Amino acid sequence: MQSGRPDTPSGRADLGPGTAPGTVPGTAPTRPGTSPEGPGPFVAFIESERPGGLVAHWDSRRRRKHAEPGGPPGGTWWAPGARGWWIGILFAVGSALFALGALPGYPDAVGTRVDAVTFFIGSLFFTTAAFLQYRESVDAANGGPTRGWRRVFAFHPGQIDWWATGIQLVGTLYFNISTGNAVRVELTAQATYHHVWRPDALGSVCFLVASGLAWFEVCHGWFAWSPGRLAWWITFLNLMGSIAFGGSAVASYVVPATGQIRNAELSNLGTLIGGLCFLAGAILLLPERTEGSPEP
Fold first, then answer.
1. Together in a domain, 57 and 91
2. Residue 208 lies in a domain
3. 159-193 pLDDT, tens per residue?
4. Same domain, yes or no, for 57 and 120?
5. By the 8 A CB rule, do 26 and 159 touch?
6. Domain of 39?
7. How far is CA 185 from CA 141, 180, 205, in A?
């Protein structure tokens, strides 16, 4: 499987974020003489030979992450005017709060109510970042509306990133419900099962599916070994974090009859590992945004 080539060395050119002539809305700019790559029905990367021996590249993630007109505003670590910067920062804060809430000794130090509030606040940061990331995908879509809130409701089933970001956004909403209900006191065993564990499990499934799709997009297929790419590490860390969150959800299964958690220690460990993986991936989003661009 091809590992992807986001750079543009001598004799190569980037097709760029714009819509190519003759494309279908919501799909990659395929043309005669191109070599598309991607998992299943999706196209994540295209190599196209041009006259004179020039080889042009189109990469779906690069198109999305570098779609800001005039290049990325601001620097790598401080760019409050750039949406991509906020996506990284918000995901980082949310991830740090989830890791903090699962840190051994933290619930004993602050109390279970404050610990629950920590997770809830973290989930709100997740949702805000996920919404911005979904807008990033829709705004970069081929043939989408030029402006307005209609872009939020655009339908691009041919784009793997549209599915990934949309499913992740739904997952964050499930986490909002789960962590918000966990703040409530004196929940019955049945209420805890239905309103805390179940949405947590559904959110974890959404994160796992979304992270898998993002991984496939970067790999331009089902698997690739590309440790020299920031995007590869970001999606790998997010996939590992989603697997850890999934394990946490399984371990935190609430027995409806008793309200007892199956394995609280394993659940906290999964949440801690997942939060740290997401935190590392979120931090790497910042240099990815300015990758290949000169610092101001």
1. no
2. yes
3. 999 999 999 999 999 999 999 999 997 888 888 99
4. no
5. yes
6. 12-65
7. 44, 11, 26
